[in-house]
Amino acid sequence: GVAAAVGVNWQRSSNQATIISGVNVTTNGGAVTIVATNDANAKARAIGTSMSDSAKANIGAAVAINVATIDNIASVGTGTTINAIDAGGNKGDIKVEAVTADGKVNEFVVWGLAAAGSTGTESQIAIAGSVGVNVLNLKNQALVADNAQLNTLGSMSVKANTPIVLQNLAIAGAFSRSTSGGAVGAGIAVNILNQNTEAKIGNNVTLNASESITVKADSSLNPRVATIEDMTEIIDVVTGKIAALTKDIPGVDQIFAQLDKVIQPIEDKLRDLINQGKNSGIPFSVELFTRIEQE
Predict the structure, then answer these.
(1) What is residue 44's predicted lDDT score, i.e. its pLDDT?
(2) Partners of 64 in beta bridges
(3) How far does CA 244 lie from the centroid of its chain?
């Protein structure tokens, strides 16, 4: 038996809020807001299994790949003037921000699960593979270009942020009950992240504010917490195949029946906790190779 599963997400996104060069913007005390908001998410999951009682070779291969290039830019052009003030002294804040939506993160999930197996006198080889890859290029920039002038009696902010959450699970298994032997398993999990989060004021820029002036860039990288749904999705596939593979072994069905009596109430309880909004996740991340570049 041969099984294969391939899941690929290829994402290219550009989001920009811009006041071009040489423009004059004046409000009567109202705010001037140049904000680009982004919330990028991608999930690629592949589960491939091949388990047979009569095959000479069982091959299970699963590939899951996320490739994303995301540009999120807020900018004020060269020589642009912004006045958020009037003669009566009314004030308006000025914001130049490239941010992720409030309460959100840029989440990228990729799985690869491959299970092979073999039993019987004709089964000699069990081969499993599995590759999980995240290739991410993320750019969040808040820019005020050269020779710009920003004036307000309120506050002024130039901000960029990039909160990132990654999950990369590569799970592989191979087993053989053949007297001739043979079992091969492999799992690879790769994260390649190029990240540029920047809040920048150009040359010869004038910033006048009666209140605070904030120029800030921040980013974060955290592993995604695997939920019970993630785990049960894997467990359901694997245990179902193992049960089918070992169905002719005396007493195995009774063992699985007893396991169900123990596991099912636990799953039900965890699902209830999730529905109630409580944190019931299990930190679970396999990363054999991670490269992170921050500019």
Answers:
(1) 79
(2) 7, 132
(3) 34
The dihedrals phi and psi of 238, each to the nearest 5 degrees, come to: -65, -50
What residue type is 239 in one-letter code? T
Which phi-psi region, left, alpha or beta, contains residue 234 (left: φ > 0; alpha: ψ -120 to 50)? Answer: alpha
CA angle 254, 255, 261 (to 5 degrees): 90
Helix axes 228-245, 252-275, angle to 10 degrees: 170
Per-residue model confidence (pLDDT) at position 99? 95
Model pLDDT for residues 88-136, shown as the tens digit of each residue = 666 789 999 999 999 899 998 887 777 666 655 455 666 777 778 888 9
Rounded Cα–Cα distance for residues 29 and 59 (Å): 69
What is the C-alpha separation between 149 and 22, in angstroms, rounded? 10
pLDDT of residue 166: 86
Q: Residue 218 is which amino acid?
A: D
Q: Name beta bridge partners: 65.
A: 8, 133
H/E stretch holding 111 reads strand 106-118
Closest CA to 112 of 59, 14, 46, 196: 46
Name the residue with tokens 């054999």.
Answer: 288
Q: Which residue has the higher pLDDT, 170 or 221?
A: 221
Q: Which two tokens stand for residue 237?
A: 């596939």
> Sheet of 24-27: strands edge to edge?
24-27, 81-84, 149-152, 206-209
Q: With beta carbons less than 8 A apart as the criterion, state whether 245 and 174 touch.
A: no
Residue carrying the six token digits 């705010």:
31
Is residue 158's pLDDT more than 80? yes
pTM value is: 0.68
